[in-house]
């Protein structure tokens, strides 16, 4: 868009969403089909597991495992984005292949129940259940419990950050790292970028308003329970080292940066990658040099967190 100085790699992504609740279910049906139909490379083994999620309901967890990976491998539990109400899309699956192969780790990918029919805390508790399942079944999965990370993009970044906070409080799982890609962090929607970016492509402030209205349906915004959003928490001490990535022309930009600053203030090791000329979900443009650099930085951060691998 001419209004914003978006890099040429992403300038063709002109769609400005005006989402309505009724559009979500049909899009999710298509996303489910496309996700399942995306084949894995020959180097990655993909397995589906049914586990017990929140309130003992069944959810699907997909495990991506490099075929030549060593025993006691690192693990990344990854929470996909999609405004809490969209299911995983094809680009999520493709980047899981990259993370698994390039970071030489096992990926545990929960198909958590989305918020349209399951508002907070279902999605979050499903993600925590997937993390606990991976930890409890580490021997069967070939995972080293001391090398477990949590990650996510967008709303999945919120789920990952809040799952990390839950893991710290519940003292059941020891996380070594969190990977937060243009994460949702602030339910108050009070940052400057949230106020400014009302019409940016792919995601914007009105999209975020609908997201929070659906996710926090029926809840008192002035008296929310813990873990509704990452920036609710005042004491961040004890959380794991963190990689945070923001996009320049994204209404979520400032809350991601603010979370990074608050983690740093709590003496948490943080790498903040403020990408320039980018929009929300810019990394769907796989051939962009900016996307390639970002993927490389994420993988490098994962490998270092998993034991100083270069």
The strand line-up of the biggest sheet is 1-2-4-3-5-6-7-8
CATH top level label:
Alpha Beta
Helical/strand content category: alpha/beta
Distance between the termini: 38 Å
Blueprint of the fold:
Layout: H1 24-37, E1 44-52, E2 58-66, E3 73-79, H2 90-102, E4 106-111, H3 122-136, H4 138-141, E5 143-153, H5 155-170, E6 175-181, H6 192-196, H7 205-215, E7 242-249, H8 253-265, E8 270-279, H9 289-305
Parallel strand pairs: 3-4, 3-5, 5-6, 6-7, 7-8
Antiparallel strand pairs: 1-2, 2-4
Describe it for me?
- With 310 residues, this protein is of the alpha/beta class.
- It has a single domain, classed as 3-Layer(aba) Sandwich (Rossmann fold), CATH 3.40.50.
- The longest helix is centred in the C-terminal third of the chain and has 17 residues.
- The protein is globular.
């Amino acid at each position: 868009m001419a209004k914003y100085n978006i890099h040429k790699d992403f300038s063709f992504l002109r769609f400005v969403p005006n989402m309505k609740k009724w559009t979500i279910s049909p899009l999710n049906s298509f996303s489910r089909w496309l996700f399942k139909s995306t084949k894995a490379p020959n180097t990655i083994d993909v397995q589906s597991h049914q586990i017990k999620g929140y309130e003992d309901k069944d959810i699907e967890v997909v495990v991506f495992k490099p075929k030549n990976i060593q025993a006691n491998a690192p693990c990344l539990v990854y929470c996909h984005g999609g405004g809490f109400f969209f299911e995983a899309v094809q680009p999520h699956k493709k980047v899981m292949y990259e993370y698994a192969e390039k970071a030489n780790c096992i990926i545990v990918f929960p198909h958590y129940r989305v918020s349209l029919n399951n508002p907070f805390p279902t999605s979050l508790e499903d993600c925590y259940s997937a993390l606990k399942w991976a930890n409890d079944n580490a021997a069967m999965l070939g995972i080293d419990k001391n090398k477990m990370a949590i990650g996510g993009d967008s709303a999945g970044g919120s789920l990952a950050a809040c799952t990390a906070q839950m893991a710290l409080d519940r003292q059941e799982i020891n996380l070594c790292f969190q990977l937060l890609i243009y994460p949702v962090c602030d339910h108050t929607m009070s940052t400057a970028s949230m106020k400014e970016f009302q019409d940016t492509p792919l995601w914007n402030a009105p999209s975020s308003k609908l997201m929070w209205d659906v996710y926090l349906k029926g809840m008192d915004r002035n008296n929310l329970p813990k873990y509704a959003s990452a920036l609710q928490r005042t004491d961040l001490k004890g959380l794991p080292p963190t990689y945070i990535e923001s996009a320049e022309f994204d209404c979520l930009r400032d809350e991601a940066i603010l979370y990074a600053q608050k983690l740093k203030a709590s003496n948490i090791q943080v790498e903040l990658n403020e990408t320039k000329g980018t929009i929300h979900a810019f990394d769907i443009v796989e051939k962009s040099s900016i996307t390639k650099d970002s993927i490389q930085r994420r993988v490098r951060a994962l490998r270092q967190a998993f034991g100083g691998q270069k």
